[in-house]
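Progress report, Aim 2. The chain analyzed during this reporting quarter is listed below.
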Amino acid sequence: MGHVKTTGDGGLAVEVDVKPPPTKETQKLSFLKAPETPPDTPAQDINISETQSKEWAIQRSSDADGTQGKTEPQDTVPDSIVDEAKDECKAKPQDVLPISTTQLEAQSTAKSPADATEGYQHTVQTSPTNVVAPLAHSLSPATRLKNKLRNTNDLIVCPGVYDGLSARVAQSVGFETLYMTGAGSTASMLGMADLGIASRNDMVRNADMIANLDSHHCELIADMDTGYGGPVTIDQTVNQYIRANVAAFHIEDQVLTKRCGHLSGKKVVPNDVFLSRIRAARGAIDAAQADIQLIARTDANQQLGYDECIVRLKAAREWGADVGLLEGFKSKEEAARAVKELAPWPLLLNIVENGHSPLITVDEAREMGFRIMIFSFAGLAPAYMAMKAAYEKLRDTGVTGIQGTGVGPGVLFDVCGLREAVQVDENAGGEDYKSIMPASG
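Predicted structure tokens for the chain:
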């Protein structure tokens, strides 16, 4: 800095204070030092005075024609200082501010922006795209499930559902994550055995309906079988699942003429074909910038053995699968071993009572370290038994046995959203459904 004085002959002269050149260390520290910003100073107009910066005065300003950020040559920070400062920032990953709108609610209890930027940035200017803790219901089902897997150690227990009624019943008793079983969907929609008969359109349509019954509070994991074709078909299928609001899907290594994982005689494709399915699915997810979770499933245990399953799942993990699923464990010890060998990668456990695998309870699965547990036949088998008993009673006695249970149209329709639908109509000024609620019985 300098000042003007009058010379002896009446002229003007400028005196300039000459300071020794700053050292490399003072330059670096001065660049990183955060200024003391007055409370009323906007974040984008922070000025660092000569006294505060000591050696380097970096000032953002707006000139008369509206140009912002004009700097004088003496204000330029050397590239070497910038590079070293970046290295310092990289050494403190815990101080990096979250900027994604898909952050967990749990992160709202983490460092505040002021704390998280100590020594690096004094003021943070936020915007709608810089939200640390969005409300849970504002997140997509896929993002909510992703956050549960990444930020908790909870075991996510999912009952198997296959149509609207089974999904509604599961939701009504408090389940937040459901599993759309391919076997159940095939039986319910088509009345056929799980032999790869259900088409992509069948599965997408069913998943779309179930996932959107209550997408604000419930996540759906859906069966995608083999992806229904090659990489191009898989790409299209993944995008259809994304648009259907599915939170996660599993894709497997069986041949196209596949069968239920708990039937004998399964055959799997070579590992390179399986991995091409994983790569195609991962590419579709990344291109869509979606949070839908990719679950890599191998059925190779029956045909090729446990070791080959681990090789395939490790390779799938390298190609971007978020979760692993080894179908058809032969023992509880094998299940526990897989969790340990693939840790900390999350594994999904499929339980099919009276199938080819041993029964593992929720508590046992939690202790082993599984992260997701699906009960594929939890709805289908009991529904079959109840309907069969009622139909046999009707055949033999002329009545179903329902009378006196209290289960009538009012109860069933209430589970299916009757009250909510009536409320929507009334809120809009409608009066058609004011007295629609039927008496139960």
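The beta strands are 2-6, 12-16, 156-161, 177-180, 219-223, 248-252, 293-298, 323-326, 347-351, 372-375. The mean pLDDT is 79. These observations will guide the mutagenesis work planned for the next reporting period.
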